[in-house]
Design brief:
- The protein contains 8 helices and 10 strands.
- It has one domain (55-297): TIM Barrel.
- The protein starts with a helix and ends in a 5-residue tail after the last helix.
- By secondary structure, the protein is α/β, with parallel strands linked by helices.
- A 7-stranded parallel barrel has the order 1-2-5-7-8-9-10, surrounded by 4 helices.
């Protein structure tokens, strides 16, 4: 077969896979339009007892929550922030760069068309409508002057009483209607957390290996939940930058990992009580996967 024909065959194979996988189930979603049934329970945290500690709740989250722009190498989500929150996402993962007096949300070198103020305004509007909910936010300072991000965030918040900045672990009753920051490294506002994934989100050359690493991460989460730290696991990954995984964009990894993750979690449903996995931050999650995580909280 001629080289040109091989290239065309390869292209159409990739195109066919993409078309077949687009919105193929409720676990993976790459459709930017969120369609919710009329009976959909947006404020799912309303069913959690006030006394339950935040570290005892399984929370669906999004990795690189605002990464909607920049092409397949950088895109990690399809829904807008407003739609992610309405779909049940309660953890946001943000990389910010401070320039002047503004914090810009980034993915690598790509500006994601939002400032941190834009994000906080959207979250506040959601929480003003659904006062039983809480939204957790992790901020990664990416600028050269990382230590200034604390002061910039503090200035942005002002005296807002609906933002949790303390390091003590609250119960859900204390943070309803509030933004809860998570702290690590140079960002020191909010509750501390344990990250289970190490380097696993950065490089994926084989999806099966990613599944096996996720099992270890989720086992660690089950062993660590309920203490003074939140527990965070990323199910996301990308093969970009590796030889064998050069075509594994975040979307292609999520197409495989999300259905597997859903099946893995659901095996624990018969347990009484069901286990807690803490926060699971995902790329391109579908409605059914989000609710598989949420339903760990009921038994």
């Amino acid at each position: 077969m001629k080289a040109g024909h091989k290239c065309l065959l390869f292209y159409f194979t990739l195109l066919s896979v993409t078309l077949l996988c687009h919105g193929k189930d409720g676990f993976f979603n790459d459709d930017e339009n969120l369609l919710l049934p009329g009976s959909y329970n947006v404020p799912w945290m309303a069913g959690i007892e006030d006394f339950r500690a935040l570290s005892l709740i399984s929370v669906p989250g999004s990795h690189e929550s605002m990464a909607l722009y920049g092409g397949p190498e950088t895109k990690c989500q399809s829904w807008s922030l407003k739609d992610q929150l309405r779909a049940g996402i309660r953890f946001l993962d943000l990389k910010v760069v401070g320039l002047g007096d503004t914090l810009y949300v980034m993915q690598g070198v790509m500006y994601q068309h939002n400032t941190l103020k834009d994000v906080l305004d959207t979250v506040r509007a959601f929480l003003s409508e659904f006062k039983t909910e809480a939204v957790l936010i992790r901020i990664h300072p990416e600028s050269f002057e990382k230590n200034t991000v604390n002061q910039m965030v503090q200035s942005l918040i002002g005296n807002d009483q609906n933002v949790w900045l303390d390091s003590g672990m609250p119960n859900i009753g204390q943070v309803r209607g509030k933004i809860v920051f998570l702290q690590k490294s140079t960002f020191t506002l909010g509750i501390p957390f344990i990250e289970t994934n190490g380097e696993s989100i950065k490089k994926v050359s084989n999806v099966k290996d990613k599944d096996n690493r996720l099992i270890k991460q989720l086992n660690q989460a089950m062993e660590s939940f309920g203490g003074d730290n939140a527990v965070l696991t990323y199910s996301s990954g990308s093969g970009l930058g590796t030889f064998w995984g050069m075509f594994l964009t975040p979307k292609r990894v999520a197409e495989k990992v999300n259905p597997w993750l859903n099946q893995y979690i659901r095996q624990f449903y018969p347990n009484q009580p069901r286990p807690c996995f803490g926060i699971i931050a995902m790329d391109f999650p579908g409605i059914d996967l989000i609710h598989t995580v949420i339903n760990l909280n009921w038994w």
